[in-house]
Design a protein that fits this description.
The protein has 434 residues and is of the alpha/beta class. The protein has 16 helices and 14 strands. Helix 9 runs parallel beside helix 12. The structure holds uridine-5'-diphosphate-glucuronic acid.
Length: 434
């Protein structure tokens, strides 16, 4: 099949590379000329494990190509994905759909034969209807269907998530569109992930509901962690105890400094707005959003408390800046709230992150950026694990103690077992003190 993907962001690039790997002829389009030129040379704009090799291998076989020319690519497409960004609109948190609508209007002009246009971007309920209307108005002769096919991949494991999905959601209102999507995903479905066909609006809502539910789970366990601290219980054992119940499930029950990233914060906010717009408010999600915002702020206080309430003039070493490991993405990362919180109280902050420092340098000022975890700890009064990168999981405790002014470790990701840190003043999340 000839597949065209408009937008070479996270979702577009990963989907394009994976679909090419499954044997489809894929053309990825982006209006950013410089980005396309770099991609043609195999330079990947994001850090995502496995993606660079996948892109380069499929470019070599000719299955994956990059261009800025919508006119040429769209003319021969069987399937066109719209995978452009839908950022939260300044001021009200609603998804900004201007890029989606612009893409729809542009591609409509170049359709030559029947194709299915698919919204892969996360879009509010009714967007497929709007895209269809824009395309019909732009080119009344064009033969097409619009479908919704949300993506559930996670940064850091995006290639694996695309290739081994839990489910594929196809929101389409015509049989011919469904048939074409089934053909597209046939190679993937050999491993039998369920392909669930719904109407377009349902598919659009599934995406928001999935991300909001994940945020809800994290928000829930974070509050349970607070309760555990007050009641001298252990949140990891509570999570295991409830997670073994199949109705609850064990994933997304790791307590931490609050969720971040480009999706959960944006999509919970957008779902809240959508629900209000439909006069069916989701107050439960409003509460999750507020709790998560408060949690990030509370984490700076927790670090101060570990230093007995006064961090003025003290040096804090922060390990991990990105919103989660295996990504260079800093969007909505807890570090963006916690580090300024520490600085406001007069702390000096040193920091190290394996992939995030290039972006962090633009976002977090007056931070002493270091080359590795141990350099970061040199002469610090406390060390904070903010993101659970693998390289922070087996730190040399004896060496750490020789570097730190005092052995204080605030582990906001519960990276270590309590008994491993008995000789430290060890503060973790929702667990009794060592
Ligand atoms: C999320 C969803 O997990 C994907 O299914 C979805 O496709 C994606 O958004 C999207 O809409 O594109 P992602 O933003 O990559 O994926 O990150 P997650 O793995 O969901 O993590 C989000 C945040 O929650 C991170 O800050 C992470 O540290 C935090 N988290 C996650 C916890 O604090 N505890 C957990 O147990 C799990």
């Amino acid at each position: 099949m000839h597949v065209v993907i408009i937008g070479t962001g996270y979702v577009g690039l990963v989907s394009g590379a994976c679909l090419a790997d499954f044997g489809h002829e894929v053309t990825c389009i982006d209006r950013d000329k410089a980005k396309i030129e770099r991609l043609k040379k195999g330079v990947i704009p994001i850090y995502e494990p496995g993606l660079e090799a996948l892109v380069n291998n499929n470019m070599k076989t000719g299955k994956l190509t990059f261009t800025t020319r919508t006119d040429i690519a769209v003319g021969r497409a069987d399937i066109i994905f719209i995978a452009v960004e839908t950022p939260a609109r300044q001021g009200d948190g609603r998804a900004d759909l201007s890029c989606v609508y612009a893409a729809a209007a542009e591609l409509a002009q170049h359709i030559k034969s029947y194709c299915v246009v698919i919204n892969k971007s996360t879009v509010p309920i009714g967007t497929a209807d709007e895209v269809e209307a824009i395309m019909q108005k732009t080119n009344p002769e064009a033969d097409f269907d619009v479908a919704s096919n949300p993506e559930f991949l996670r940064e850091g494991t995006a290639v694996r998530d695309f290739k081994c999905p839990d489910r594929i959601i196809v929101g389409a209102d015509t049989e011919r569109a469904i048939a074409r999507l089934k053909t597209l995903y046939h190679p993937l479905c050999l491993d039998k992930p369920p392909l669930l066909c719904t109407n377009r609006r349902t598919a659009e809502l599934i995406k928001y509901a999935a991300n909001a539910f994940l945020a809800l789970k994290i928000g829930f366990i974070n509050q349970v962690a607070d309760l555990c601290e007050a009641a001298k219980a252990d949140v990891q054992q509570v999570a295991r105890g409830i997670g073994l119940d199949k109705r609850i499930g064990s994933e997304f029950l790791n307590a931490g400094p609050g969720y971040g990233g480009s999706c959960l914060p944006k999509d919970t906010l957008a779902l809240s707005r959508i629900a209000h717009d439909f006069s069916a408010p989701m107050t439960i999600i409003d509460a999750v959003i507020a709790a998560n915002d408060q949690r990030k702020e509370a984490m700076a206080r927790r670090i101060t408390d570990a230093l007995r309430g006064d961090i003025k003039g003290k040096t804090v070493a922060v390990l991990g800046l990105t919103f989660k490991p295996e990504t260079d993405d800093m969007r909505e990362a807890p570090s963006l709230v916690i580090i300024p919180g520490l600085q406001q109280q007069g702390a000096n902050v040193r920091a190290y992150d394996p992939q995030g420092m290039k972006t962090a340098k633009h976002l977090l000022k007056d931070v002493d950026y270091c080359q590795n975890a141990y350099e970061c700890m040199q002469g610090a009064d406390a060390v904070v694990i903010l993101t659970e990168w693998n390289e922070f999981r087996e730190l040399d405790k004896t060496y750490m103690k020789s570097l730190l002014n005092q052995p204080v470790l605030i582990d906001l990701r519960n990276t270590y077992a309590l008994e491993e840190l008995e000789t430290f003043a060890y503060h973790s999340v929702g667990r009794p003190a060592a």
